[in-house]
Structure formats: structure tokens, C-alpha cells
Known about the structure:
This protein is mainly α and 114 residues long. It has a domain at 12-75. Helices cover 73% and strands 0% of the residues. Belongs to the SNF7 family. Residues 74-114 are annotated as: Disordered.
Amino acid sequence: MGLFGRTPDKAPKEMVNEWSGKIRKEMRVIDRQIREMLEDTFESMEDGEDMEEAAEEEVDKILFEITAGALGKAPSKVTDELPETEPPGAAAASEDESEEEIEEMQSRLAALRS
Length: 114
């Protein structure tokens, strides 16, 4: 008779061995599933790059159609720089403002020193 009045069907050592085997089997199944998930993820990442290139080609085709071919004549990259022009009188005004600011800062500095 067992501890609680009932005899076990199997010995505890056999039960532990059986449970260990079942756990190992489940671990292998889970490991296999995880590997498959990783493979699917990496494959989809590679497909994403191909899809991005295909999408860019489609956008270029549509823009070419909309602009009636003018887009194909345009350079792929603009290398010209715009000339820097200041409106007349802007340089003189900025020089006057900068002189006033310098004088104001010098007076503040003198006040702090005293």
C-alpha cells in the first residue's frame, strides 16, 4: 500500500523518466518551430528589398507617363548651386544692427565689471 492507501501504477523513477522524455520531445518540436519562424522572417526580409525595388520602378513609370517623358530628360541629380544674393539694403541694415549689438554687449560687460 502506498502513502495514501493506494499503490502507484508505475514506479516514481519510471514516471520521471517518462515525463523527461515527453519534455525533451516537446522541446525539439518547439525548437523546430522557432527555426522555421526565423527562416520565414529572413526570407520575408529578402523579399521586402525586391518589393521596394519593384515599387520604385512602378513609381518611375507612372511619373514618366504623367510628365509625358519630361522626367526622363531631367538629370538624376542637380549639381548646380544657386547664387547667393542679398536684397539691396539688407547688408547695410545687418551691419548697423551688429554694431548696435556689440555696443550694447560692451555696455553690459562694463556694468558687470563695476
